[in-house]
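ok, trying the design again with the full structure, not the truncated one.
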């Protein structure tokens, strides 16, 4: 059965990402090498599982066998699926770069959002919606303050237009301000911590930090998913 973007499970995506992180974009990598690299990053992947999964994901991965050893390489479509053109490590955002940073963030979110996108940010505005314009999957937003100070009604009018153009694939919920502090970006298989509101990223020094460890990713995602589910829906 031919695999497709829709049929890539969370486990498949984890192993595809492990192949990419181990150098499978530029080189041909064995399953044991992917497993060793993943363990060094705190993931518990074993070579037989990596071998089995990569061998069947032939829409995203190609392989060749030499002297009985199978080596894998991530195809361009696999790189696109993972957003592999973007850095996986921590990123420093220099101050005084709001225009270029916002453009890069819009492109980043448009390509890295796989399965769904959950944004956790206590402060959002029309600028946050602009950043999400190119996202092609469902979007969930958890926030506590809607719009710039004193401009909530203006933001809500813009949000409703944005929601209609996204075919109602956007859901905004308002949580308690006491529950929200940091800023997080979640997709089906990746997550980042951002130490500045997305609406103003680039105005002050900031860091974008990926959550590499699968245990931390799952715990953090589940915590904020639970907060989102109990928060008030903004119509």
């Amino acid at each position: 059965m031919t695999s497709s973007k829709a049929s890539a499970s969370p486990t498949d995506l984890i192993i595809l990402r492990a192949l990419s992180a181990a150098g499978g974009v530029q080189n041909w990598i064995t399953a044991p090498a992917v497993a060793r690299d993943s363990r060094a990053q705190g993931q518990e992947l074993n070579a037989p599982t990596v071998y089995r999964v990569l061998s069947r994901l032939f829409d995203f991965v190609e392989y060749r066998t030499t002297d009985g050893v199978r080596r894998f390489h991530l195809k361009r479509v696999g790189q696109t699926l993972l957003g592999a053109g973007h850095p996986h490590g921590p990123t420093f955002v220099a101050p005084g770069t709001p225009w270029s940073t916002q453009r890069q963030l819009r492109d980043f979110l448009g390509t890295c959002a796989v399965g769904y996108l959950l944004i956790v940010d206590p402060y959002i505005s029309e600028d946050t919606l602009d950043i999400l314009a190119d996202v092609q999957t469902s979007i969930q937003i958890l926030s506590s303050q809607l719009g710039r100070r004193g401009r909530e009604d203006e933001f809500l009018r813009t949000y409703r237009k944005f929601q209609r153009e996204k075919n109602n694939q956007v859901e905004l919920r308002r949580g308690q301000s006491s529950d929200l502090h940091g800023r997080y970006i979640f997709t089906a298989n990746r997550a980042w911590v951002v130490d500045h509101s997305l609406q103003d990223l680039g105005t002050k020094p900031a860091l974008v930090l990926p959550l590499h460890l699968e245990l931390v990713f799952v715990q953090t995602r589940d915590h904020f998913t639970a907060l989102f589910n109990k928060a008030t829906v903004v119509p």
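Keeping the full-length input from now on. The radius of gyration is 19 Å.
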